[in-house]
């Protein structure tokens, strides 16, 4: 079984087919369990993720019923009860896309440190492709802040790898869009200037520098 939380929550069988998770609360419960990467979560923690500011009158009973529904979909043995009380998704990091992403980024960083930008760029593209939309889309907004920050950091790293290997085709339009979306991101602005210089567009690089100086002043 594979669990996808870098976007709308999904559970996939080994053959790649998607299991029907049903409503938003069932997706939120699975996302909350998968986010913890196989570690136990207390009833209180899960209730905060699933119900937010509108918990049911008997939260433990409601959560127990929701866990029962999830077990019927993904398998009874897939969600273990833990002391506390709490619950744990019986899964390892390789089964959850967030942790596969993080491992790919770590491996890419090692290749970049070893002056192998080709391998780093390939690994980062593969890792970034795991995002199918906003991370942890079925959980309250704060949950997605960290993985979205990780995605941006990986994107900066991928651009750096492309610059180091001289693969500037398409970088200028991409970085122009990124600096529009994230105008105060110094790294993207510096990378845009480098990409323009690498293409011999020195006047445009100077214009980009002046724009960065005004925006970031």
Overview of the structural elements:
This is AfsR family transcriptional regulator. Residues 1-91 bind DNA. By secondary structure, the protein is mainly alpha-helical. It folds into two domains: 2-93, Winged helix-like DNA-binding domain superfamily/Winged helix DNA-binding domain (Arc Repressor Mutant, subunit A), CATH 1.10.10.10; 95-216, Alpha Horseshoe (Serine Threonine Protein Phosphatase 5, Tetratricopeptide repeat). The chain is built from nine helices and five strands; from the N terminus they run ββαβααββαααααα. It has a three-stranded antiparallel beta sheet with strand order 3-5-4. It has a two-stranded antiparallel sheet with strand order 1-2. Strand 1 and strand 2 (10-12) form a beta hairpin. The radius of gyration is 21 Å and the shape is elongated. 33% of the residues are buried. The mean pLDDT is 96.
